[in-house]
Specification:
With 193 residues, the chain is mostly beta strands. The protein contains 3 helices and 13 strands. The protein has helices at residues 2-10, 87-93, 160-169, and strands at residues 18-21, 28-30, 43-47, 55-64, 67-76, 82-83, 108-112, 115-124, 127-135, 144-145, 147-155, 170-172, 182-184. The longest helix is centred in the last third of the chain and has 10 residues, at 160-169.
Length: 193
């Protein structure tokens, strides 16, 4: 185990990492000028707790016309893959993000700019919202994907045109984070642990 951990550290990967990074260096970017990350908001990176898995999740929040969006990008490394899931599965796994949501619509697939997004509409705090999942390429020899982007957007009036404009404006490039300065996050321990 120590050898594996040491090998992970020499390649720039540390298990159990929870850090803040400058949003300009986040792999999640938007080319749409109406979409921005407020200065009070931070971007985050987290890695798997297990040295057996090589998985990095990046998170970023955006202000969008009439609302906001929260986007996560998960990327995997050698011999690690993401199990194929539906947008409903992702929503259930990240239930805390959707606390108080109601009026869930039927899941559907939408094609924007040649990419298939799994989507599901809902309402949250008086805004209309859409959860989305964009699976990356299939992993060779595994029944899963190497990467995925998921999250949700909420606005006073979230129509198909706004959703398409927003989702197609996002790019995901993990090389942006190479040698980026990071700030470790303090994790609060849960009661009873």
């Amino acid at each position: 185990m120590a050898t594996l951990a040491a090998s992970c550290q020499t390649t720039g990967y540390n298990t159990g990492e929870r850090v803040q990074l400058d949003c300009e260096r986040s792999p999640i970017q938007s080319s749409w000028s109406n979409v921005y990350t407020p200065t009070r908001t931070k971007c985050f990176r987290a890695t798997s707790e297990s040295a057996d898995l090589i998985s990095v999740v990046h998170a970023r929040s955006f202000e969008i016309p009439g609302g906001y969006a929260n986007v996560l990008y998960q990327d995997t490394g050698h011999n690690t893959y993401i199990v194929q899931q539906s947008v409903q599965d992702v929503v259930r796994q990240h239930g805390e993000m959707f606390k108080g949501a109601s009026g869930w619509g039927e899941p559907r697939t939408e094609n924007f700019a040649g990419k298939d997004y799994q989507m599901q509409d809902f309402a949250l705090r008086g805004k209309s919202c859409t959860a989305f999942l964009l699976a990356g390429p299939l992993a060779a020899y595994f029944a899963g994907h190497r990467s995925r982007a998921f999250g949700y957007a909420c606005a006073n009036r979230l129509d198909r045109e706004l959703v398409e404009r927003l989702l197609t404006s996002f790019t995901y490039d993990v090389s942006r984070t190479e040698n980026a300065p990071v700030k470790p996050m303090r994790l609060e321990k849960k009661k009873g642990t």
